[in-house]
Structure to design on (430 residues):
């Protein structure tokens, strides 16, 4: 923040976390500066735009289309153009939206009608991380903790003169837009790296590492041509496949005795080959799978997800454990290459599922053992290179997000003076 000048004079705001604010600024409770609108309507047979919590991106306030169909509540909040929505559920805090038209939204939003404050400035202020932390600390409820309007509305907000509110909002709009573009570019680089890794894996496990060897038609759709000297075998001949069978609930525990329980497709980490999470354990020996086997999700929204068991696990229905007879790592890599084909054969669109029979009979390429080792070593080295680049990109993204958050906080609390900032020619053109 050192590149920005400070205001000439400051005064005590009377609010501990705000500290000093510029002379000429005031403070007012949110409920007075921007009262809540509590108008509700039954959405049945009504043709309104509906905004759910999932539609608002955390920390940026950008609207995004949902990847899945959202079922609106029957009673929803009404909002108007230039209202500000604030998501009150703790898991969804930092979801703030400046409305550009009339519509309806989830009842889990506070709908605010700015009165003594501009909508743009209020929008930026509510994205201030320090403010979010205060609201977060007040949330209540065991299952879905949420903010309370009495507490939220009583919070004091710093209020600059109206021209300064406009200048601050304009400044932040320009600067955060540039930061967001940089973040998006880096996130796209990460996506491209993951695509490159998947392509490297597919090439290596289906074509080998020697481009000069004679090839043959495998007769398998997802494989195409493979090296002439490779074998093609169904998975059931080269691996042991352990189908899941849910243990009895009376054997569940949280004290770590028995085996980790993977009792359905939802209990999977976000990334391929993520380790299974120890949510529950079971002492029922039914369908225990060994350490370091491959877990494959057969149904539901996580169909095709892969995990490695880092200890003995008990698997429920919808999960299969695959224990390779030769190289487990080679089979794991084959599954990444075969997954798209498997997903294409899944039955059902809303709840896709892959049958155990299809999995057992899926044809896999099998090079000689030395080639399996060479392929795995090559892919491991490529993964290390890609992971190293990913780490740097993710660190850069986190730094940009922290800078974005700090810039908002400094501007809306008056720690920096942005009144005289003028967009550069390049910013004005973008």
């Amino acid at each position: 923040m050192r590149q920005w000048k400070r205001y000439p004079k400051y005064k005590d705001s009377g609010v501990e976390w705000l500290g000093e604010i510029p002379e000429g600024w005031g403070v007012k409770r949110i409920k007075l500066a921007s009262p809540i609108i509590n108008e509700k309507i039954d959405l049945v047979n009504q043709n309104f735009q509906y905004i759910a919590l999932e539609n608002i991106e955390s920390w940026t306030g950008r609207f995004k289309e949902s990847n899945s169909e959202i079922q609106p509540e029957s009673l929803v909040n009404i909002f108007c153009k230039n209202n500000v929505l604030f998501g009150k559920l703790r898991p969804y805090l930092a979801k703030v939206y400046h409305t550009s038209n009339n519509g309806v939204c989830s009842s889990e939003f506070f709908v605010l009608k700015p009165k003594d404050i501009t909508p743009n400035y209020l929008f930026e202020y509510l994205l201030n991380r320090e403010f979010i932390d205060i609201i977060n600390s007040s949330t209540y409820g065991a299952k879905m903790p949420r903010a309370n309007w009495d507490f939220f509305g009583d919070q004091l907000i710093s209020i600059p003169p109206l021209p300064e509110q406009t200048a601050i909002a304009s400044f932040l709009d320009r600067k955060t837009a540039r930061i967001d573009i940089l973040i998006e570019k880096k996130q796209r680089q990460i996506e491209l790296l993951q695509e490159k890794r998947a392509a490297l894996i597919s090439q290596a496990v289906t074509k080998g590492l020697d481009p000069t060897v004679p090839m043959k038609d495998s007769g398998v759709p997802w494989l195409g041509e493979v090296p002439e000297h490779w074998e093609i075998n169904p998975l059931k001949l080269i691996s042991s496949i352990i189908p899941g069978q849910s243990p009895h609930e009376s054997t569940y525990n949280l004290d770590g005795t028995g085996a980790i329980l993977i009792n359905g497709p939802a209990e999977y980490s976000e990334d391929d080959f993520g380790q299974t999470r120890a949510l529950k354990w079971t002492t029922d020996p039914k369908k225990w799978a060994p350490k370091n086997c491959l877990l494959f999700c057969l149904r539901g929204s996580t169909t095709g997800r892969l995990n490695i068991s880092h200890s003995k696990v008990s698997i429920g229905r919808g999960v299969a454990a695959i224990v390779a007879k030769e190289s487990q790592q080679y089979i794991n890599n084959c599954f990444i290459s075969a997954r798209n084909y498997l997903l294409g054969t899944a039955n059902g669109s809303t709840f896709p599922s892959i049958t155990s029979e299809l999995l057992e009979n899926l044809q896999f390429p099998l090079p000689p053992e030395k080639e399996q080792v060479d392929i795995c070593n090559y892919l491991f080295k490529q993964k290390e290179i890609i992971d190293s680049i990913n780490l740097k990109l993710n660190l850069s993204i986190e730094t940009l997000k922290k800078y974005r958050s700090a810039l908002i906080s400094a501007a809306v609390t008056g720690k920096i003076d942005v009144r005289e900032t003028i967009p550069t020619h390049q910013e004005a053109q973008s």
